[in-house]
Specification:
GO terms for molecular function: GTP binding; ribosome binding. Keywords: GTP-binding, Nucleotide-binding, Repeat, Ribosome biogenesis. Associates with the 50S ribosomal subunit. GTPase that plays an essential role in the late steps of ribosome biogenesis. It comes from Nocardioides silvaticus. The chain contains 15 helices and 15 strands. The chain has a six-stranded mixed beta sheet with strand order 2-3-1-4-5-6, with helices on both faces. Strands 8-9-7-10-11-12 form a six-stranded mixed beta sheet, sandwiched between helices. Strands 13-14-15 form a three-stranded mixed beta sheet. It is globular and about 70 Å long. The longest helix has 15 residues. The protein folds into three domains: about 160 residues, Rossmann fold; about 180 residues, 3-Layer(aba) Sandwich (Rossmann fold), CATH 3.40.50.300; about 80 residues, GMP Synthetase, Chain A, domain 3 (2-Layer Sandwich), CATH 3.30.300.20. It is an alpha/beta fold. Bound molecules: guanosine-5'-diphosphate (GDP). Guanosine-5'-diphosphate binds next to helix 7.
Amino acid sequence: VPVLAVVGRPNVGKSTLVNRILGRREAVVEDIPGVTRDRVSYDAEWNGRAFTVVDTGGWDPDARGLAERIAAQAEIAVSLADATLFVVDATVGITDADEEVVKILRKSGKPVVLAANKVDDERTEAEAYGLWNLGLGEPYPVSALHGRGSGDLLDAVLAVLPEPPPVTEKELGGPRRVAIVGRPNVGKSSLLNKLAGEERVVVDNVAGTTVDPVDELVELGGRTWRFVDTAGIRKRVKEASGHEYYAWLRTSTAIERSEVCVLVLDGQESIAEQDVRILQAVRESGRALVIAFNKWDLVDEERRYYLDREIERDLVQVQWAPRINITARTGWHIDRLVPAIDKALEGWETRISTGALNSFLGRLVAEHPHPVRSGKQPKVLFGTQVSTAPPTFVLFTSGKLDAGYERYIERRLREEFGFVGTPIVINVKPRE
Ligand code: GDP
């Protein structure tokens, strides 16, 4: 899915505009200084086309002045996104900070759509046209608050976003997209270096692939893989000097761009809150998942005992993910990574025929009916798998199902059909 980054000074209305684009008020909170927002990317859709919106507004690096801060945001935006939506306050006009951003955006060569916000009525529209001076093309007057002009703006955004691949890479025959994620120092770059080693693929040699400069093509097990946003793994200098938010932003977008994530954990350290947070992001994204416990050379019997407890406690929701133990530094067991990834992608793309699914559901209901609730017993009437990647099911029922019963269905689905390495989505449609 293509990525759109939203950039602009504070108070120009970025968050309001993002909410407007999403068509719901859900997500974006106003910028609160010093508060790190968890969500940085959002799934959006316009005219049937899906794209991801990244709000750079929450990134508050330790940069000195406002202009530098915004410039830093713009740099991230152009390094991560396919296109940038640059938001200017039309009632204020162009500021020095805006000029800085323009330089970065123009240098990047990536498409930019210019939104002139706070054009609440026709009268202010004239002010928007002053923004032609920025040299970024046509300014789109909008009122993020009232919705005025947002349709035209979104049309312009779609026009510059690359067409998303209609199917997964498998069907396209291109390299599978893998994201290596994990908190700092767990050994991500060591792993990537070991994997890539001397086998790094020269981009030009792969016919018909356009590769984002932040990605890396690596030959593994006789096939080419695309490791997404390896710049985020390799270029650690900036990350170290910047805000934690920067790392988080990169992680989120890498997950979005991947088909399968390899979560690297440090085997000798306790599973931390940050690990769980990344895990949560992977789950929400619906990507396939492999968990690699690295630094296994440092794991002794005692640590192993505690690790098993931690796995039970913290990884219970991803019990389905293949786990491998590796030592990235020496390369020990990293040959197990590709089979694990293959297994996860296979689960991710599994499709169950409607016939097989319903005969399974029939058996399940017969063996273990839903408990009676206030005199009624909800029944699963019919199910169908509506999509893969991840496997997504719709169940038509005669009433609402208990959360526990939904979990039971998922567990049985996994027992029956595998689904290793993939989340499963079950949408229940009660016919009341
Ligand atoms: P990243 O921040 O996740 O990319 O982590 P790095 O790859 O930079 O590794 C952080 C530190 O852990 C470095 O000092 C590595 O040499 C060390 N390291 C990485 N993998 C292993 C491993 O398998 N065993 C041991 N003992 N150290 C490792």
